[in-house]
């Protein structure tokens, strides 16, 4: 059965995520990270898209983007992932198996505090994982990248950035805010206020992501 087209509307902020196949390493050396950042930059010339944040981890990556038109997100990400796979095969010819676990995942994100919480979660990844004592020391994220990468790849935020952003990122999210972000990531559901999430899930065909995991409990018939 052919795959159905993704309902990726233009003008919407998206959290994009992909992981190495079997959680295996995607980025082995510095050159691997640099190659992917160059692919992200080059992809912007093929589709109208704004990039607000990113974080490349050894076995997965995150992006926060907003496509201009309805087809721009899939055009951008399809070219990125296909190009990355091809270049990795050339760079690592002895690597076996698929590079990625599957197709990328995309989740619509509401602006305001949910956008900010998402960027805090993404950019603090290296600190939580113990790769760096402070997140801004990780050079493969929108928080720690150098000015050359930032100017070539990143766009201005659609919301005001909190003051002393690096200090904000270094402080853990509250458990409630973190749980909301993690639930969105695990269930592939939109991230935002409850009403916005329900409306967005309906518009984008993600209503199933709002249902509880597992089978519904069996209804016990009353004996009369």
Task: Spell out the key features of this protein.
Alpha-Beta Plaits, single chain, 8 helices, disordered N terminus, alpha+beta, 4 strands
How would you characterize this protein structure?
- This protein has helices spanning 30-43, 72-91, 113-123, 125-128, 147-153, 165-170, 175-187, 194-204, and strands at 13-19, 49-57, 60-67, 105-109.
- It is α+β, with helices and mostly antiparallel strands and 224 residues long.
- The protein has one domain (13-210): Transposase IS200-like (Alpha-Beta Plaits, 2-Layer Sandwich).
- A four-stranded antiparallel β-sheet has the order 2-3-1-4, sandwiched between helices.
- Strand 2 (49-57) and strand 3 form a beta hairpin.
- The longest helix is centred in the middle third of the chain and has 20 residues, at 72-91.
CATH architecture: 2-Layer Sandwich
Order of helices and strands: EHEEHEHHHHHH
CATH topology: Alpha-Beta Plaits
Strand order of the largest sheet: 2-3-1-4
Through-space gap between termini: 46 Å
Number of separate strands = 4
The proportion of residues forming helix, as a percent range, comes to 25-40%
Major β-sheet profile: 4 strands, antiparallel
Q: Mean of the pLDDT scores?
A: 89
* Gyration radius from CA atoms, angstroms: 19 Å
* Secondary-structure class: alpha+beta
* Low-pLDDT regions: 1-5
């Amino acid at each position: 059965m052919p795959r159905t087209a993704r309902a990726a509307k233009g003008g919407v902020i998206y959290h994009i995520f992909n992981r190495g196949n079997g959680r295996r390493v995607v980025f082995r050396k510095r050159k691997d990270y640099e190659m992917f950042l160059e692919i992200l930059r080059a992809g912007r010339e093929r589709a109208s898209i704004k990039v607000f944040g990113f974080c490349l981890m050894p076995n997965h990556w995150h992006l926060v983007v907003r496509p201009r038109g309805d087809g721009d997100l899939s055009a951008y990400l399809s070219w990125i992932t296909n190009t990355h796979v091809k270049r990795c095969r050339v760079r690592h010819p002895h690597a076996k198996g698929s590079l990625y676990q599957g197709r990328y995942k995309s989740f619509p994100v509401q602006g305001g505090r949910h956008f900010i919480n998402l960027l805090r979660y993404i950019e603090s990844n290296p600190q939580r994982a113990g790769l760096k004592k402070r997140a801004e020391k990780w050079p493969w994220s929108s928080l720690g990248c150098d000015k050359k990468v930032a100017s070539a790849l990143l766009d201005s935020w659609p919301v005001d950035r909190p003051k002393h952003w690096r200090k904000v990122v270094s402080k853990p999210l509250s458990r409630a805010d973190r749980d909301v972000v993690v639930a969105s990531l695990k269930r592939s559901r939109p991230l935002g206020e409850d009403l916005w999430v329900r409306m967005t899930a309906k518009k984008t065909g993600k209503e199933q992501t709002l249902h509880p995991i597992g089978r519904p409990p069996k209804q016990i018939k009353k004996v009369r």
